[in-house]
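Exam revision sheet. Question 4 asks you to relate a sequence to its structure. Input first:
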Amino acid sequence: MNYASVDAQIQDWAQRHSLTLFTSQGEREIRAAYVSTISKECFQIWIEPPVSGQIWIYAACIEGRRENDSPQSWCIDVTGLGSALDNAFQTVTGWVAPSKRFFPP
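Answer key, structure tokens:
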């Protein structure tokens, strides 16, 4: 299980939305991005490696008003990854309101 077959789509998505893509955590391979707000809330979108043509995407509040909410999740066919990632990003930006997204200098 690895990200080789979907990395180009994930990287394109992260770049289009000005997200920093994290690819490792210690020695573990991951794909995750964070969205922060000017009110200091933090949201995470993460992608599991594809398995048998399916891939899981998750979005959750890590710190803020919604941190006790359950993560939102999507299991989709890898052919729909780009649209699903955009949907996850739109979900998170909806959670951000009424605050505004923070862009580091």
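Marking note for examiners. The beta strands are 22-25, 28-36, 42-47, 54-63, 72-77.
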